[in-house]
Amino acid sequence: MTDAAARAASHGAPVIAPAGWDAKKARLTEYFDRTASETWARLTSDAPVSRVRATVRAGRDRMRATLLDWMGADLSGLRVLDAGCGTGALAVEAARRGARVVAIDVAGSLVSVAAERAPADVRERIDFRVGDMLSPDLGRFDHVVAMDSLIHYRAQAMAEAAARLAALADRSALFTFCPRTPALTVMHAAGQLFPRSDRSPAIEPVSERRLRRLVEARLASPSPRPSPAGGRGGDIPAVGASLADGAQASPLAPPLPLAGEGRGEGMRCLRTERVSAGFYISQALEIAR
Predict the structure, then answer these.
(1) Residues near 191 by Cβ (< 8 Å), separated by ≥ 6?
(2) Which residues lie closer than 8 Å to 105 by C-beta, 6 or more apart?
(3) Magnesium-protoporphyrin IX methyltransferase C-terminal domain location, by residue (predicted)?
(4) Could you state, in order of their start, the residue ranges of all structural domains in the chain?
(5) What are phi and psi of 84, to 5 degrees?
(6) What is Dmax (Cα atoms) for the chain?
(7) Is the alpha carbon torsion for 51, 54, 58, 64 positive or negative?
(8) CA-based torsion, 128, 134, 139, 140: positive or negative
(9) Residue among 57, 30, 53 at smallest CA distance from 44
(10) How would DSSP label each residue in 203-251?
(11) pLDDT tens readout for residues 112-158
(12) Helix, strand, coil in percent for the chain, rounding step 5
């Protein structure tokens, strides 16, 4: 682990979580931070993997390229939130395109890998953090991206989270979901026959029509206000060059005003694109004005 990845500045604000969010987040933290940490670090590297995981790697590469293309080739001067950054591939590419990136994930071990892998030429443009992507103190951004980080939550919680992330975005919020299709149902049932090392954590397929309806209903509703000091939630440790020196807030994004006025006025669900590659099926959805 590098010195930057080893040092952490503790800060953050309580998170008012959607129903079922905290329990599922705890299970995902256990899985990605402990059970499958090495597996995911390997999957997102150039190391050889099984045939099943090779299709997942290829699919994720295509999906990441799609989301980056939606944001644009030139991100100079823009702020990007990578919500559920994993080992940091999307954050690195966004930084290479000129963005200032806050990259956050609940799995500290994966964030450490991300900080270690970040090339020297973009490292100062990325603020790696460990914590909840719905933390109200993350700031405002031009683009918010949640690639395959909401797929484990039920539709209502996923829609709520997507709307909250959209409230942080001035231009667009991009997220992915697992489309409810017969092929996906069969593949995940068949996946139980593979060795445990090749199994993915449980996902929650949802139809595009239903998800659009849920997201747009939440975009039109008032945002929850942060709980008082001492309320539910905890400090979020930050990992990365900008916070390793003891700073208590990210220099990459200004503070987010208190919620309550709405979710991202004028935002709605726009384009979508599905990526299928072997055992990987995921669909991107854009929220923008």
Answers:
(1) 52, 198, 199, 200, 279
(2) 32, 84, 85, 86, 111, 114, 129, 130, 133, 149
(3) 146-217
(4) 39-106+136-222+272-288
(5) 90, 60
(6) 50
(7) positive
(8) positive
(9) 57
(10) ---B-HHHHHHHHHHHHTSPPPPPPPTTSS---EEEESHHHHT--SS-T
(11) 999 999 999 999 999 999 999 999 889 999 999 999 999 999 999 99
(12) 40, 20, 40
Q: Is the pTM of this model over 0.70?
A: yes
- Which residues are registered as beta bridge partners of 288? 172, 268
- Which single residue is written with the structure tokens 């997507």? 162
Using the structure block, give the residue that is written with the tokens 């979901």.
177
Token pair 């309550």: residue: 260
Mode of pairing for the β-strands spanning 100-105 and 141-146: unpaired
Query: What CATH topology corresponds to 39-106+136-222+272-288?
Result: Rossmann fold (3.40.50)
pLDDT band at 227 (very low <50, low <70, confident <90, very high): very low
Q: What are residue 174's DSSP bridge partners?
A: 145, 286
Residue 144 to residue 166: CA distance in whole angstroms: 7
**How far is Cα 168 from Cα 147, in angstroms, rounded to an integer?**
16
According to DSSP, the residues that pair with 177 across neighbouring strands are 283
